[in-house]
Each structure stands twice: as structure tokens, then as C-alpha cells.
Amino acid sequence: MVPTRHDGRDGYLAFVESHQHRLLRAAYLICGNRHQAEDLLQDALLKLALRWASVRDGDPAAYVRAILYRDAVSWWRRRRREWLSATPPDRATHDRDGALRLTLHDALGLLPPRQRAVLVLRYYEDLTEVATAEALGVTVGTVKSQCHAALRRLREAAPDLAQNARRGQGAADLATGVEVNP
After folding, report:
1. What is the pTM of this model?
2. Residues contacting residue 45 through CB under 8 Å, at least 6 positions apart
3. Most C-beta atoms within 10 A of its C-beta, which of 23, 34, 95, 177?
């Protein structure tokens, strides 16, 4: 049987349907904004579609994750985030876990793009140091140093997270509660 062009399209669509929610959550965690995460994922899936024939036999999810993280860093470099407001936003939280999630989200927002990407890949996506290095196109040593620096900055920026980690309620527990409604 000779593969047709339609066979490749079906495989691509099946991949997108089965992976889009997890990839959207990862995009949201890396950029912190739902609309930007959707745009980021859409661009990454378009790039995947253009290269589907060469990527489909390997690991397309890893290919898309690499695109997500590299494009997020590129976007962040082009647009320095600075939000001007006459009044600070309201911060009403009623439950302790919600407050910790917001603390984690705010602390992640303070990290440079590469450090944030390393933490999301290592602790949310649960990738190894080697897989993280491959996804970001850096060395394993860079992953280790960026991870160390990012965790140190998180401890400085959000001491509440470090206190909860000592009590057995670590930041990894909080990451599973951060969801994007598809």
C-alpha cells in the first residue's frame, strides 16, 4: 500500500487531538498567560505540520515542546514585560492552596525565560536533565546550573514555598493544581 498525503494528515490530526491539552498546559506554565499560550501552541503546531513527514516517526511531542520553549524565550526577549497600572490588581484568595499557587505563579513570572523553561521541563513535564537539555538545545551542565539558579531565586522571591516544602507540601504538588481549561 502506497502512503497517501491523506495518511499523513490523519496522523497529524490524531497527534494534535491526543496531545493538545498537555501541551497547552505546558505553554501556559511557561508564559503565564492563557491567550499567549494558545498563540504559542498554535504557532508550534503549525511548525510541526510543516515538518510532519520528517518528525512523525520520531518524537513529535518533544519536537513541539522544544518549539514552545524556544519561541517563548524569543517572544520574551522581543517584548520586555512591563505592566503599568495606576492601582495594583486585587489579590483576593480564600484557600491556602490557591494562595500558594498564586505565589508560585508570581515567583515563576520573576524568573528569566530560560530558568523558567528549565523548571517547567524538569518538574512539571518531569523530563530528565538530558531530555531537558535536548529540548532547549543546551548542555546538561547548563540545565543543572539554570535549575540551581532558578530554585535559589524562587526561594528568595517566595519564602512561603520553601516553608511549605519543608512541611511536605512542595512546589511540585502545587504544579499539578495549575490547570488550563481547554
Report:
1. 0.51
2. 16, 20, 64
3. 23
